[in-house]
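@channel sequence for tomorrow's demo:
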Amino acid sequence: MRKKTRQVTIGRVVLGGDAPVVVQSMTNTDTADYLATALQIAELARAGSEMVRITVNTPEAAAAVPKIVEHLERLGLDVPIIGDFHYNGHRLLADYPECARLLAKYRINPGNVGHGKKRDEQFAQMVGFAVQYGKPIRIGVNWGSLDQDLLARVMDENASRPQPKDAIEVMREALVTSALESAAKAEELGLPGDRIVLSCKVSSVQDLIAVYKDLSSKCDYPLHLGLTEAGMGSKGIVASTAALAILLQGGIGDTIRVSLTPEPGGSRAQEVIVAQEILQSMGLRAFTPMVAACPGCGRTTSTFFQELAAEVQGYVRAQMPAWRAEYDGVENMTLAVMGCVVNGPGESKHANIGISLPGTGEAPAAPVFEDGAKTVTLRGDNIVGEFKAIIDRYVARTYQRKINPATHV
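structure tokens (generated this afternoon):
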């Protein structure tokens, strides 16, 4: 069961309470290039990112925020934009009030707001702007930029214990302490508790799990989950899935980000798809029809089932924007593309729509099953097109059409 946390509203998105776990992403464009940034936000939003964070690090970046929001409005996109501030956020929010007004949330790293007396003063200034403009904040602690004064204090306290913790445990304790003390300070400064989100990001799977279990046990603020640098390709996907799945299964987490390093020339939207698939595979959310496909073996010497599985997966993902607008519940549909007679018919019967392709030595026929019943057998050179048409017809007759308020009387 998911832990009940406070409910925080960020633009049109709700975190915590009974709201579903939210998918977040971040741009990697130069924010000062407002058009490139707006287009990447649009790409991420269309892929399914429900909030998008942007770097706000220079006067030019802060000045670009109104143009970014305006361009997204022209594209018909209403996605909350989060400003990521380090070092000079207090000045940028003061000097660019339209930036402060239009951002849906501010991300503040307590390790990067200043040092000594300036740290408390500049943190207070940023919280003050959040209070003034009615914005929530994410207090995002990161072990790569942990407040060194706080770390020294926690280390001193640990050294005085009869049984001191080891170095990694002290680091974990310092992360949680920084987040909780910063949240308490923000509330003292007048920011309501229902406008605070916390995160404590690290790069190690086991550290992330330990830190968030501790943090979750000590507060009821909504928690943002994610490895701070997951890595590239399969490593990044596996590490993120391993960490987030354990926490989510334990009821911890209200929003997630999968911080993948894109392949050269790769789409930034991959991190959104991976985050969605983590949540959908765990049964926590449904975003797009899931396609089950066999891995292949000596019985499946043809590559056709692989090609069909890829075609079907790409097709349903491409169709989802239109289907989502027209039909209720289509994201829950399941499909199966199987490669031989061993598990093919059985797996196909378990899916809403399944096809069992012929393996080595089998008759050149592909039976199709819909909701457990065989409906047709496909043959010939146009199996791909015919199977897509079957999917379209199934969607049209199975899922209820949404009522269009403009035409409904």
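heads up for whoever presents: The chain has two domains: 5-282, 290-401.
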